Backbone:
């Protein structure tokens, strides 16, 4: 059954940022008993939350930091039609050198997420969660840092490009990716979730993956590939060698446009525009589309 949504319902998410609504995906084909080969798959939707940074403290950047995630959870639970799943694309917690505090922050996020009324969740780490201990605390609380699953005729892949402090995916995970894709039908569309961009967006700002080109080479063997990531705290859309890359905004604070200033520093909070740079987007796609169609929505319905 195709889910329909009133845009006003989603304005409840507008004050939260980092939210993505997806309905279908490019190149979808129906799967399961009785499905005709090549027939369009029913629409489905999921929500992406990125860069929660639980534990962040910075009144000059966001004095409402501790309220963003609870409000997001309440808003998702209030949706008239439940998302098929929710994916968290990293930086669930804000970095800390204290291993005990890191675990406390991750467990606090997990405890709040348990209140979500959603069928399933998928978690990726960000460098704030995992780079200081190679993902040890994250795995204790949330499980594996990479993996794959199928839903609605789409193959979803989660890639970990943060647990290695050198911002590498690594040969072992790249070999796993190659094997995973080889086991799926070549006609099946692929959606990739990751934290850092797989391409060199701004290496000087750590907005890149050192062996991302190797992952892209593997992904280019598939006809339909879409990548959703976080990390850069802003909307950004690129098409590289036929692969679409779409960044999500953050729940907490925006960052400046790539290399638009000497240093990568959070955009200061402005009381007159408290949600500037934060928002959500609607993604609609289907079997007849070459690429998803995007509709961007600023916070607060402004």
Residues:
């Amino acid at each position: 059954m195709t889910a329909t949504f009133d845009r006003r319902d989603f304005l409840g998410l507008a004050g939260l940022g980092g939210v993505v609504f997806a309905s279908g995906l490019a190149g979808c084909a129906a799967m399961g008993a009785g499905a005709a080969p090549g027939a369009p798959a029913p629409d489905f939707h999921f929500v992406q939350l990125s860069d929660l940074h639980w534990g962040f403290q910075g009144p000059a950047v966001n004095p409402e930091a501790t309220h963003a995630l609870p409000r997001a959870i309440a808003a998702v639970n209030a949706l008239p039609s439940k998302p098929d799943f929710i994916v968290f694309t990293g930086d669930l917690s804000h970095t800390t050198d204290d291993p005990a505090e890191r675990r406390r922050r991750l467990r606090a996020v997990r405890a709040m997420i348990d209140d979500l009324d959603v069928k399933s969740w998928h978690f990726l780490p960000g460098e704030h969660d995992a780079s200081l201990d190679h993902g040890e605390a994250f795995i204790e609380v949330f499980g594996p840092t990479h993996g794959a699953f199928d839903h609605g005729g789409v193959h979803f892949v989660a890639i970990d490009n943060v647990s290695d402090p050198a911002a590498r995916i690594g040969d072992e995970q790249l070999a796993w990716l190659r094997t995973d894709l080889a086991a799926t039908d070549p006609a099946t569309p692929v959606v990739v979730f990751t934290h850092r961009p797989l391409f060199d967006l701004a290496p000087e700002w750590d907005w890149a993956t050192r062996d991302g080109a190797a992952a892209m080479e593997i992904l280019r063997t598939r006809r339909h590939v879409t990548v959703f990531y976080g990390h850069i705290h802003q909307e950004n859309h690129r098409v590289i060698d036929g692969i679409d890359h779409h960044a999500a905004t953050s729940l907490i604070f925006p960052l400046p446009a790539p290399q638009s200033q000497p240093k990568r520093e959070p955009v200061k909070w402005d009381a007159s525009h408290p949600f500037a740079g934060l928002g959500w987007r609607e993604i609609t796609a289907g079997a007849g589309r070459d690429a998803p169609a995007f509709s961007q929505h600023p916070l607060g319905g402004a």
